Amino acid sequence: MSSTPAHNGITAEDERQILEAINKFLDRDVRPYAMALEHADEYPVDMVEGMKALGLFGAIIPQQYGGLGLPTTTYAKIVETVSEVWMSLSGIFNSHLIMASAVIRHGTEEQKREWLPKFATGEIRGGLALTEPNCGTDLQAIRTVAKRDGDHYVVNGTKTWISNGIHGTVFALLVKTDPEKQPRHAGTSLFLAEKGEGFSVSRKLEKLGYKGIDSAELVFNDFKIHSDRLIGGQEGLGLRHALGGLELGRINVAARGVGVASAAMKEAVKYSQQRETFGKPISQHQAIQIKLADMATNVEAARHLTRAAAEAFDRGERCDMEAGMAKLFATEAALTNSMESMRVHGGYGYSKEFPVERFYRDAPLLTIGEGTNELQKILIARQLIERNPI
User: Fold this and answer.
1) Active site residues per annotation
2) Each residue of 226-276: pLDDT tens digit?
3) CA-to-CA distance for 318 and 312, rounded, in angstroms?
């Protein structure tokens, strides 16, 4: 048995065993049922229980707080592996872990001891509540306000497109604690908000793809939250805390892109050897071979970019450029590969009998979520200039 060290104290053998256990779970409990659940847009209750048993809700939470303490490099491989079978599952634990990451990186020791063990087991699950009906990329423009009232804050506002909004119970909630503060980001704060009186789910949002996971609109109407739920215990740092989690989020979305791109490619490779035209498998036609070659190259390039970003994150380096590059390329690869796989499948690619149409519906979200790809290009260019002054 190999004992070659991997990152953060786990060995290559540890990582292999973790991925092997996840693959067994996917083959046994996910692959046979994913298509039916996805088409019905049904929340995968049993699969969530399986992920809890595997420790996925505590994947990156330090072991001292009950988590697996995995490095981001291993976590990215897990996300890729899960997304190759059903992308929606990765969103259920990723949104939860971005919330946990905010506590890991910025919470007080008391907050870590109180919340992280419950997050790690999946006993308490949730996500990130940033986006609003009139505010997506520009998070400084949020309108949800939290006003101090003794040892509590009173929250009013609406959040939308919140993953795990229905089945989750606690969310990292970005609010304005000082709407007049300049610069605007200095007036934001991040709280851990548990569902209760004044905190309601107004509706489930219907989506083109990414089904099974619940995306919802959350409404806060004089919702009272205790001051000890302010992450880090200090006002004015909310946007900084939230954006720190987005680096991890973008690495996750990149890994999802690798998974979807890989799944689309594998389906195309398989089908091209089964389908015959003009007396031979279509895999022997040059037009199809060119598509397969481009798809395979997309997957490998996306995988390497994602791994490089994860390694930079594990080293504690600023990696918004690396994460942005990975997210940009891998999600565009998923979009391209899903379309090319559909073309390889011909009419069957448009049928719900094959998984290719699901990849085609899931992939566009990846180019939008965790910051649009247009935004990624701007961030990459700015970092490129900042790192290479003349």
Assistant:
1) 370
2) 999 999 999 999 998 988 778 888 999 999 999 999 999 999 999 999 999
3) 7
